[in-house]
Amino acid sequence: MTLTLPPHLARYVVAQGSITLDGVSLTVADLADDTFAVSLIPTTLELTTLGRAQVGDPVNVEVDVLAKYVERLVAHPAQEARA
Length: 83
Ligand SMILES: Cc1nc2c(=O)[nH]c(=O)nc-2n(C[C@H](O)[C@H](O)[C@H](O)CO)c1C
Fold this sequence. Notes:
Layout: E1 2-4, E2 18-21, E3 24-31, E4 35-38, H1 42-47, E5 61-63, H2 65-75
Antiparallel strand pairs: 1-4, 2-3, 2-5, 3-4
The protein binds the ligand Cc1nc2c(=O)[nH]c(=O)nc-2n(C[C@H](O)[C@H](O)[C@H](O)CO)c1C.
Residues 24-27, 38-41, 43-44, 47-48 line the site of ligand DLZ.
């Protein structure tokens, strides 16, 4: 399944990283400039709404929280703890 990658989320998505679509935890199988792909196994197709998704349907995308932790750590390097 190939989806459009929202530009504001692009920096959080990496090949073989984690992504959640409509609440389903998945692995990014392929990544291009403005698209990404996931491979859906039969169990996922059977047990989740992704098995009934049609071309053009909107999908809720949640990026890996680890990517956001890294972004925050880089933006705010170690500081002394304040009481
Ligand atoms: C990490 C992960 N990656 C994938 C994937 O890339 N493709 C896929 O079809 N299923 C994956 N799964 C398992 C799904 O999260 C799981 O099948 C559904 O949540 C249903 O339980 C998981 C857990």
